[in-house]
């Protein structure tokens, strides 16, 4: 299936199977705002829990907090967001469409990368088993030429943005001959900066109301609480503070479904360290976070690092973990070495000391910070799109199956009485549901022929179907069918709990990080 078709299928499947709806759909929706439906809310919660367990529960030196969305407005002055949290925008004079100038250039580079991939595929076909991809991309003249072009363009873009040289960003767009993707016109305005924060007001009367912002990242709630947590938790450096929660950005080019939203959720962790140790911790967190992703078994080749050319105003090193979404490799998570920028800024603006006394070294310092920051919605999209497959079966029919990692699946098992009208079967099936639901999310499904029910559960992502039939009444056995292999086994009802637990248990999955 072509990537664009695959992505359309992802969006329609997410709606049809109760995962994601457009917000306020009955009023024709609100652009780049989405609601999570009955299955989506469960999947999102399971991803959040999987992250929290790995980051907080499994680390003795990381604790979690839940800071408010509203923060004192000076927070955003100190953090640099009021002055520097901007996107460079460009308008097309003919189509009147607005674009992010850097995204236009990056999309141009993605097309060149597409050419590299084509060369690789061609060579793979030509050389068969003897093909060595690493050697090919590091020696083939055409590939090297393409890669050099990408590197030169991105370097220039990074430098122009860093130097706030917006005229050069426009010049780059014109030199590359980039056209409006919709109209094909190359008639561009100048590039301008646009602040992404949403403003709101606190207070009832117009003259006393205070201007507030909806937080554009959860991280600042951690920074301003650094000393509170350190003192009350008696934390010793190195230690981390984690939190998950909503963030808001007035994204101008909001597209690609839940990839870029105006209201979204982040899972962030700030790791406070001794100045000078940031390089080793940067490597540690790159490695640890990649292992977390890979533990979900979504294909090791679907991840890659992308080091930033243009560093954010607070960072001395930064990399993205990119995932192979249906529209190509894009940022899924950021790992940033934020130095002591944020704590120092908050010290300056609040007039309060945010320092740490290191008893071992007998010195006071402002800690450096290593940040891991992942979008929960983006992770949802990675998991959902990667799991959705159309499988051609031996008899030639096609089965749509959502092969979600079982640990994340919203419903772990569906219990199906073979015949709806047989009261003994429905009664036994409901008893099994009542028993299993103490530990797992379990569904009961009695409508339609059993084959159709299997397909329905496959498409919804349920890892197990348990069927109760005439024999079950006689000997307390049922069949348990596995979503991915479609294999069916006859087992005793007493065994169900352990069979399901083995596949969905968080410990089994997180152990893969070791
Ligand atoms: N505290 C650092 C920070 O916010 P970021 O790279 O701007 O860094 C971190 O964002 C992560 O948040 C991204 O890697 C992405 O997964 C997610 N994210 C950012 N903007 C988003 C948006 N508009 N919609 C959905 N997720 C977004």
Describe what you observe in this structure.
- With 514 residues, the chain is of the alpha+beta class.
- It has three domains: 1-70 and 196-388, Bira Bifunctional Protein, Domain 2 (BirA Bifunctional Protein, domain 2); 86-193, no CATH class; 411-513, 3-Layer(aba) Sandwich (Rossmann fold), CATH 3.40.50.800.
- The strands form seven sheets. It has a seven-stranded mixed beta sheet with strand order 3-9-10-16-13-12-11. Strands 20-19-21-22-23 form a five-stranded mixed beta sheet, sandwiched between helices.
- The mean pLDDT is 95.
- Residues 217, 219, 249, 251, 260-261, 264, 266, 268, 331-334, 371, 373-375, 377-378 line the site of glycyl-adenosine-5'-phosphate.
- Glycyl-adenosine-5'-phosphate binds next to strand 10, strand 13, strand 16 and helix 13.
């Amino acid at each position: 299936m072509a990537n664009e078709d695959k992505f359309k299928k992802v969006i329609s499947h997410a709606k049809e199977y109760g995962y994601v709806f457009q917000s306020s759909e009955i009023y024709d929706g609100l652009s780049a705002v989405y609601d999570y439906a009955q299955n989506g809310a469960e999947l999102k919660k399971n991803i959040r829990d999987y992250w929290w367990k790995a980051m907080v529960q499994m680390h003795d030196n990381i604790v979690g907090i839940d800071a408010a969305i509203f923060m004192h407005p000076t927070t955003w002055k100190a953090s640099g967001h009021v002055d520097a949290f901007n996107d460079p925008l460009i308008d097309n004079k003919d189509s009147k469409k607005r674009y992010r100038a850097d995204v236009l250039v990056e999309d141009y580079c993605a097309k060149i990368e597409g050419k590299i991939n084509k060369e690789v595929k061609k060579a793979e076909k030509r050389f068969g088993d003897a093909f060595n991809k690493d050697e090919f991309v590091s020696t083939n003249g055409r590939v090297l030429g393409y890669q050099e072009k990408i590197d030169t363009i991105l370097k220039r873009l990074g430098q122009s943005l860093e130097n706030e040289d917006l005229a050069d960003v426009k010049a780059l767009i014109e030199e590359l001959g980039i056209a409006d993707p919709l109209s094909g016109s190359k008639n561009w305005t100048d590039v301008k900066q646009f602040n992404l924060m949403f403003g709101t007001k606190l207070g009832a009367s117009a003259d006393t109301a205070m201007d507030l912002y909806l937080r554009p990242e959860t991280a600042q709630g951690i920074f301003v609480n650094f000393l509170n947590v350190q003192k009350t938790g008696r934390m010793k450096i190195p230690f981390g503070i984690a939190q998950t929660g909503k963030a808001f950005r007035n994204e101008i080019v909001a597209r690609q479904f839940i990839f870029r939203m105006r209201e979204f959720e982040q899972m962030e962790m700030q790791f406070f360290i001794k100045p000078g140790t940031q390089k080793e911790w940067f490597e540690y967190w790159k490695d640890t976070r990649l292992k977390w992703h890979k533990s979900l078994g979504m294909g090791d080749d679907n991840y890659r690092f992308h080091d930033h050319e243009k560093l954010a105003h607070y960072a001395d090193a930064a990399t993205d973990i990119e995932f192979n979404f249906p529209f190509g490799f894009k940022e899924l998570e950021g790992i940033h070495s934020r130095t002591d920028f944020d704590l120092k800024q908050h010290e300056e603006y609040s007039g309060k000391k945010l320092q740490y006394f290191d008893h071992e070294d007998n010195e006071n310092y402002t800690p450096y910070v290593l940040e891991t920051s992942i979008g929960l919605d983006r992770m949802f999209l990675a998991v959902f799109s990667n799991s959705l497959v159309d499988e051609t079966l031996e008899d030639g029919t096609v089965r749509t199956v959502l092969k979600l990692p079982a640990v994340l699946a919203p419903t772990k098992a569906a219990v199906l009485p073979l015949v709806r009208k047989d009261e003994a079967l429905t009664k036994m099936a409901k008893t099994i549901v009542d028993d299993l639901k103490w530990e797992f999310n379990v569904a009961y499904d009695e409508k339609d022929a059993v084959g159709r029910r299997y397909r329905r559960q496959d498409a919804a992502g349920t890892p197990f179907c348990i069927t109760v039939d005439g024999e079950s009444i006689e000997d307390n056995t049922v069949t348990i069918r596995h979503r991915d292999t479609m294999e069916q086994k006859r087992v005793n009802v007493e065994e169900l709990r352990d069979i399901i637990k083995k596949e969905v248990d968080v410990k089994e999955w997180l152990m893969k990080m070791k």
